[in-house]
Amino acid sequence: MKAKIIVTPKKAVVDPQGKTVQGALEHMGYKGIGAVHVGKYLEIELPDSDKEMWRKQIDEACHKILSNPVIEDYRFDIE
Amino acid sequence: MTEPAITPELVKKHNLTEEEYGKIKSILGREPSYTELGVFSVMWSEHCSYKNTRPLLKTFPTKSPRILVGAGEENAGIIDIGDGLAIAFKIESHNHPSAVEPFQGAATGVGGIIRDIFTMGARPVCALNSLRFGPIEGNGNAANNRRLFGGVVSGIAHYGNCFGIPTLAGEVYFDKSYEGNPLVNAFCLGVLRHEQIARGAAKGIGNPVFYVGPATGRDGLAGAAFASQDLTEESADRQRGAVQVGDPFMEKLVCEACLELLATDAVAGIQDMGAAGLTCSTCETAARAGTGIEIELAKVPQRAPNMTPYEIMLSESQERMLIIVQAGRAHEVQRIFEKWDLPWAEIGRVTDTGQMVVKFNGNVVVDIPAKKLADEAPVYHRESREPAYLQAVRAFSADSLPPSADLAGDLKRLLAWPTIASKNWVYRQYDHMVRDGTVVCPGSDAAVLRIKADSVPESAADKTAPVLEKYIALSVDCNATYVYLDPYEGAKIAVAEAARNLACSGAAPLGTTDNLNFGNPHNPELFWQLSESVRGLAEACRAFSAPVTGGNCSLYNQSPNGPIDPTPTVAMVGLIEKPEHITTQWFKDEGDAVLLLGEAADSSDPLRGLGGSAYLQCVHGLKTGVPPRCDLEKESQLHHTLLGLIHCGLVKSAHDCSEGGLAAALAESCMSRQIARETPQLLGATIDLTEGAPEKTSAEALLFGESQGRVIISVAAGNVVKVVERAKILGVPARRIGTVGGNELTIKISCGEIKCPVAELHDLWWNAIARAMS
Amino acid sequence: MNFAVLQFPASNCDQDALHVVKGVLGHAGRLVWHKENSLAGFDAVIIPGGFSYGDYLRTGAIARFSPIMQSVQQFAANGGPVLGICNGFQILCEAQLLPGALVRNRSLQFRCEHILMRTATADSPFSNKIPPGKIMRVPIAHGEGCYFAEEPALEKLKNNAQILFQYCDSAGELTELSNPNGSLLNIAGICNEARNVAGLMPHPERASESVLGCDDGRLVFESMVSWMENRLAKAA
Prior knowledge:
Low-confidence stretches of chain C: none
Largest sheet of chain B: 7 strands, mixed
Helix content of chain B: 25-40%
Oligomer: heterotrimer
Number of helices of chain B: 26
Low-confidence stretches of chain B: 223-233, 235-240
Mean pLDDT of chain C: 97
Strand order of the largest sheet of chain C: 2-1-3-4-11-10-9-6-7
């Protein structure tokens, strides 16, 4: 089983990296695209049991350390 | 497990000649195993053996009473700086890895040279670098040059900043010849007490051999073995693994742990695993000690599954060290490496057989006489021939140049030419102040570093004597255009400029490390460039009493367009006696007098310094002409005189004249001090050059010629007579050429004058690279 | 006074802070390893700059879980002065001892240069010796120094005079150009509501000796010392 976690910058936070990527894409001819947000993807290998327990644990870990709630949002799946 | 059979093709793929293979067989008295073939191929590569350059390198001056560890003895040379302290320093190239992957290539280059320094028992306290790329302005190939340049700079920044070493100085040149083959030369300097010198020797029969640092993967595996295989899934996986990835966080921990361990006296020998990793470190430590070494590869921490002995021995995974520990002291290794949460493993022991023996699960896979492998690589005396292109170079005359219609415009173009423009876009990305020792930041002729108590590794309490503060200056230089146009004179100039930069900062040279970046030595014309350059370097290092303590050779630098310009990079370190002698290049106060030390132009040079100049390249698109001459005796006199004046407290600023000539040097003196972000110190000057130039010196040559042996100084107006007289007594021409003040740089010449607002010059010069990169 | 200078794996301005405390100011101090769990006997704590844990995950994110940070929480709760410099500031924000966060520089590049800054208030243990209107010249060296907090938090900082230092130009104006990283309100340093915990991105320890070209940063340490002396005098 794997937890797949996506951490993204909050909309309110300036994201110069996203802006730069957006600019580069437009420059390359990808017209009409909207804002780009550059985040992080984490994959955590887990034992194949007790999905619900792991869901709680991963949620806690995301909140405590894997993301910073001041500047980041997260979402995750366990599969 | 079966190893591939040795075939002539396989030998060839390992870059070994038939004769070399014959020599291997005679050393072993049998056919080598596959792993042994790999071991010989890396140890006998140019990088490890200097087989093409050894006879040349022997001509370098390598001795002085200050040298504690000389060139070639260990991983880096060590020089006494007085009061029980010493410095270890070295420069090394990472050109080819940086061409493949600029960020990681440059980062691991920095990591490698830092390890070379702490391996010696020294605490790494500063880094420099010397970089070369293709032109970055415009379209076409420039886009890729910018990618390489940007990637290399951020790779150096990433590694150095995270490790916590100030990157103090450097140089960057842009030239067509480096397109596709950038140069990345990284320098590191460390500090230690004399009694703290560690040796890369496997001493003490029976002593255990430890591996410390991260696990071994398939990183940087010599491409030779895999390059021509069919791309199966497995080999594709291996190819991807071939880029070395640096981890500066790990290096910082390994460095701290090693220095802590060295302070315990439990270490008999220590060596980093750099190029050729485990192979080089085991055979060299045994060869140096005259012992043997035996290791078991199954005990080596491994990151990838099913690694073969060949792969483990040749891996270039980063941040690993080999430590030979005194018998019975293994627990200290354990205690310290566990404190720093670092992997370690005991992998073998020192033997009395003289053999390097490598086992894999108990089976012997390598059994080679260590000394023969390390020290008896073949030596080649290559054929040498003067290149044909020099005919045209020598035929060039300045008469063919149209007179300039806009000298002020030429000056502006030169200041905005990326090779001359401010490199703040580069050094603002490097932490150049960490460790609280940076006295002169990047942007002056040489960087100046303070050495203080915490620059020295801690040692056993009973040996700790107070550390007296020291000040050292560092500069790295090489105008490769000069070297291309005249390798002997050009190499002399590289050394002379480094020494001149030190003198301008108030320092006298201690020693030199050089990085010889050249093309294929099998090409007689390119080998001639190399041998002539070495002749020039050796002569100049003697003249300035700056012996060579070590360095690196990088040959085979060429792209499909041809070879790079020959680039013998010179890094020189000097000592400043007292902090009050520290001098910077920028003007200090309104009303100060501006003086020129040295002749306005070299009267013995028909081109008056225009040959190979930035002016010819930038304004006329010409890379030709006999470059400036370098008179070592005059140059040395100039440096001594300047230092004498600095010691008397007479010099307020000193700036060496190099690319862009007098005009560029004057402009830089007006505007190169940066008080803070967006806050330069701009001080104009009024200069009069209508007198003092030798006859037949054109306005262009007077302003932009690059005659050697010239320094611009500023002194308090009341001291002019004193300075001029002292200089004359010492045989150095000195003449007042103007006064500091105002907002403009005005230069009068016999045919008119240049007048530019300093703010405008500053904007062109300061922002040129950022503009090219955006 | 006795200063604790915390040492995390890959702290790299730890020696610099200790050098200023001991070598320049003549006070006592020692490095405290992150696995230690007591700050007994110390009068002040400095969390130095560097790349603790290689800046992996997020700057300061892993260091805040080191054992010593428990003691720092306690030390701060008891009113002891805690100064986080650069990576130390980032750690204090991650540990929620200070509000907000530090994100990637606007330029996306690491920046090492001198900046000018001014104090917004002398009412703190870290700025009480700084003359009003003084423009300080201090180096920065960071890739993630852009201060961010949501509007309500920012309001609170302003209302409580928790903004200690702001980037400015040579005339003292808070301009866009003088801001090296895009920080909101040109923030270079802040303190907590109780005023005893502060973080700043510039490195005062690199500007505490005239031989290094500038000693404005020394005022920050002298402020701490003076504040602690007053505190001790009051307690006595």
